[in-house]
Amino acid sequence: MDRATVILMVGLPGAGMITRARHLEKHLGALRLTPDEWMIPLFGQSQPEGRREVLEGRLLWTALRAAERGLSVVVDFGLWSREECTALRWLFTAAGADCPIEYLPIDHDTQWARIQRRCTRTPEQTFAISAEELLEWRAHFQEPTAEELGSAPVPAAPHLHATWSAWAAARWPSLPDTCGHPIE
């Protein structure tokens, strides 16, 4: 069986992640998991309270199952925190996959212009973002380091969690804590 590659898409809204993820899906023959494309069809709105984390957990469960079977996956979540990226790198590596990070940086002005254009062109496929929210999100976003982009070793789990699997299960409540064991 071939070794899977699970690509983690990292970036802020408007950076072009969906476009890049679609390109990777096509050229790698990968399974692409983009929560933004699931939210409105499933819940009738783009950001229903508390449901995104549940959906993302199930998508990650699906990605882990696919990776264990040698299928490459593009995880198109944005992944704003260093802990999210690290936990997923640990999980997918434990599942036997290569797990590179694909980071798409974007400056604020370009980002704001793209978001406004997207909301005008396809309002049924996106959610409104205010200028204030965009600045707040940008302030919380943790840009990947050169070491992370270069596949540096995964550090130990945060002190409140025994493993990265436990951290991920707390972050995405519908994702089981596998402790590196195959997903059943």
CATH topology: Rossmann fold
Beta-strand segment tally: 4
Distance between the termini: 19 Å
| Relevant CATH superfamily | P-loop containing nucleotide triphosphate hydrolases
The value of Rg in angstroms is 16 Å
Q: Please report which band the strand proportion falls in: under 5%, 5-15%, 15-25%, 25-35%, 35-45% or over 45%.
A: 5-15%
Biggest sheet layout: 4 strands, parallel
Percent in helix: 40-55%
Order of helices and strands: EHEHHEHEHHHH
What structural class do the secondary elements suggest?
alpha/beta
Overall pLDDT confidence: 89
Number of helical regions:
8
What is the count of distinct domains? Answer: 1
Question: How is this structure best described in words?
Answer:
With 184 residues, the chain is of the alpha/beta class. It has a single domain (6-171), classed as Rossmann fold, CATH 3.40.50.300. The protein has 8 helices and 4 strands; from the N terminus they run βαβααβαβαααα. The protein has helices spanning 17-28, 36-43, 51-68, 82-94, 108-121, 131-140, 146-149, 164-171, and strands at residues 6-10, 31-33, 73-78, 101-103. A 4-stranded parallel beta sheet has the order 2-3-1-4, sandwiched between helices. Helix 4 packs across helix 8. The radius of gyration is 16 Å and the shape is globular. The chain starts with 5 loop residues before the first strand and ends in a 13-residue tail after the last helix. 30% of the residues are buried. The model has no long low-confidence stretch (mean pLDDT 89).
